[in-house]
UniProtKB/TrEMBL annotation:
The keyword Transcription regulation applies. InterPro entries: CheY-like_superfamily, OmpR/PhoB-type_DNA-bd, Sig_transdc_resp-reg_receiver, WalR-like, WH-like_DNA-bd_sf. Keywords: Cytoplasm, DNA-binding, Phosphoprotein, Transcription, Transcription regulation, Two-component regulatory system. Pfam families: Response_reg (PF00072), Trans_reg_C (PF00486). This is Response regulator. PANTHER family: REGULATOR OF RPOS (PTHR48111), TRANSCRIPTIONAL REGULATORY PROTEIN QSEB (PTHR48111:SF35). The keyword Phosphoprotein applies. Residues 124-218 form the OmpR/PhoB-type domain. Residues 124-218 bind DNA. PROSITE patterns: OMPR_PHOB (PS51755), RESPONSE_REGULATORY (PS50110). Residues 2-116 form the Response regulatory domain. The modification 4-aspartylphosphate is found at residue 51. It comes from Dyella halodurans.
Length: 221
């Protein structure tokens, strides 16, 4: 999952980015409202963590503009403890959830998982696709009933494909969700990752639509 983090506090932004990357998320960190607006318009993020007090353009403006442009990306607003009215404004402007600063990273991670479930219309952390199952809470993956050890990136790739089971996922979209927008991706980084994931599962589990992307069938066996 590709998260756009918008936070002008260097210390806090750095701590959030590191913590989320440790959990396997791809994080693009922006520090002002204007660059946030333009990144949101690109629609490359799966979820946005938005501070409200930002230089350039405040978070409420950023959010209002995005919703007006019918950008439905889930937004979690991060506000200061005394910011009750800011919080209400945030929800009114179209935020999906909010967190009061200071917060624990565990709580942030739980809210992100919960928004992710809502995006997929699920009530639980587990995804089952045919013989594959993946648990977002514990990061456990099983295939044909056996536990499979995956690296963080393999896990993220599998998650992105399982969320779209039966549909082609374009390579640009996979690269973006795995490596983020600023990352320079080697030409065959994705192929190498698919190769290693296929070795751990089975070759047929991940289909290659040459030049376009990859897919997992609706009912992998
Ligand atoms: Ca701020």
């Amino acid at each position: 999952m590709h998260i756009l983090l918008v936070e002008d506090d260097a210390h806090l932004g750095d701590a959030i980015q590191r913590a989320l990357e440790r959990l396997g998320y791809t994080v693009s960190w922006l520090r002002d409202g204007r660059s946030a607006s333009s990144a949101i318009r690109d629609r490359t993020a799966d979820l946005i963590l938005l501070d409200l007090g930002l230089p350039g353009r405040d978070g409420i403006e950023v959010l209002t503009e995005a919703r007006r442009a019918r950008i439905e990306t889930p937004v979690l607003v991060m506000t200061a403890r005394d910011g009750l009215s800011a919080r209400v404004d945030g929800l009114d402007a179209g935020a999906d959830d909010y967190l009061i600063k200071p917060f624990h990273v565990e709580e942030l991670a739980a809210r992100i998982r919960s928004l992710g479930r809502r995006m997929r219309g699920l009530a639980i952390n587990r995804m089952d696709v045919g013989a594959l199952s993946l648990d977002l809470g514990t990061s456990e993956v099983t295939f044909r009933g056996e536990a499979v050890e995956l690296t963080r990136r393999e896990f993220s790739l599998l998650q992105a494909l399982m969320e779209n089971a039966g549909r082609l996922v374009r390579r640009e979209s996979l690269e973006n969700s795995l490596y983020g927008i600023d990352h320079v991706v080697g030409n065959n980084a994705l192929e190498v990752l698919v190769h290693s994931l296929r070795r751990k599962l089975s070759f047929e589990t991940i289909r290659n639509v040459r030049g376009f992307g990859y897919m997992i069938p609706r009912d992998p066996k």
